[in-house]
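From: lab user (bench 3)
To: helpdesk
Subject: output format question, protein + coenzyme a persulfide

Hello, I'm new to running complex predictions and I'm not sure whether the block I got back is the full result or only part of it. Here's what I submitted:
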Amino acid sequence: MGKSFLDWPFFDARHRDLAVALEAWCSAHLPVDHGDVDAACRGLVADLGAGGWLQHSGGVLDVRTLCLIRETLARHDGLADFAFAMQGLGMGAVSLFGSAEQREWLERTRAGAAIAGFALTEPGAGSDVAATATTAERVQGGWLLNGEKTWISNGGIADVYVIFARTGEAPGARGLSAFLMPADQAGLQVVERLEVIAPHPLARLRLEGVVLPGGALIGRAGEGFKLAMAVLDVFRSTVGAAALGFARRALDETLARVQARRIQGQPLAELQMVQGHIADMALEIDAAALLIYRAAWTKDQGAARITREAAMAKLFATEAAQRVIDMAVQLHGGEGVRHGSVVERLYREIRALRIYEGASDVQRVVIARSLMPRGGA
Ligand code: COS
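Helpdesk reply: Thanks, we reran it on our side. This is the complete output you should expect:
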């Protein structure tokens, strides 16, 4: 399919130039060895920083650029996409709402000199963010935090976290706040490392009597829920973009496979049934890309909210990529499930994207509510 999508009207010349330059960088630097994921991620953050790519991960967030970078990195190496994405999501609240002092951390994460984490999820609050139980009490000179966070990406290797806690201005969603917390803070412990089917640094964190200065509060007290949702509005489209990168790679691998593999004296690609599957894969990919870049473009044009567009992009792109990759595995036969083959790796890597940053059913809730607002349209 080539790169004809770059000619779509969603992109400017700078996006096309960036895609070409990043493709060359990826060909020279990726994939990396995933044997030790902590070392691999530290190395990737340093390399992406040295290459200048992390400059795009924070500060002014151009969503089309974030998406193009994620889909390109994901096509070459899922861990490189992860390393880039977490610098962005981790510092997203600071990019959008941070004070001048908090933005000093952005300089470090954008240079690849510090690693960021986004600490929202808790053992009892995954899809239901309003159930956040970690507390932050006002004390002399700042805030006292206690609680537990889990499924925290970069947990264990991050230098800084944005953490969400209940400050209690009101019950539920209206009583949360966001804080910037250095990882070497006294009282913060990594209590468990979590192993998953596509390994990356992931951990459960405990906060016991963590004291943060007043200046650690991001935005206003009580607005943490909206702040988290605003960050997710930006980054959900980019999760779709990562899924798109995985799906494009799966199609590329499959095109090579069906043209090389022979059955009954002819290439697999000659079978009409196989051609039908290839057509469906290409269709899923283009439909996903259109939804992703529609959402990204809309935000970059200055839309205040792209909640529905981002939810549609993430939902469709991650589910479609799962279908595309499943078919890629099928068309690879035994090779498709051989440990270490590209499509086997993609099959493991895609799965979590339908769960994190808002599971597929949460995106459905978001879309439906946007069409049927409670209390009338
Ligand atoms: N941007 C700005 N404000 C938003 C918003 C958004 N995208 N979404 C909701 N809000 C506001 C609402 O307008 C509402 O404001 P008011 O109280 O002033 O009316 C407030 O936030 C609460 O919203 P709502 O009532 O919709 O909250 P719910 O508790 O029902 O939760 C869902 C909504 C389920 C959509 C939310 O909890 C969610 O996205 N969950 C998934 C979380 C997630 O992605 N976790 C992964 C973490 S990173 S791996």
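A quick orientation on your result: Residues 118, 120-121, 127-130, 173-174, 225-226, 229-230, 232-233, 305, 307, 356-358, 362, 365-366 surround coenzyme a persulfide (CB under 6 Å). Let us know if anything else is unclear.
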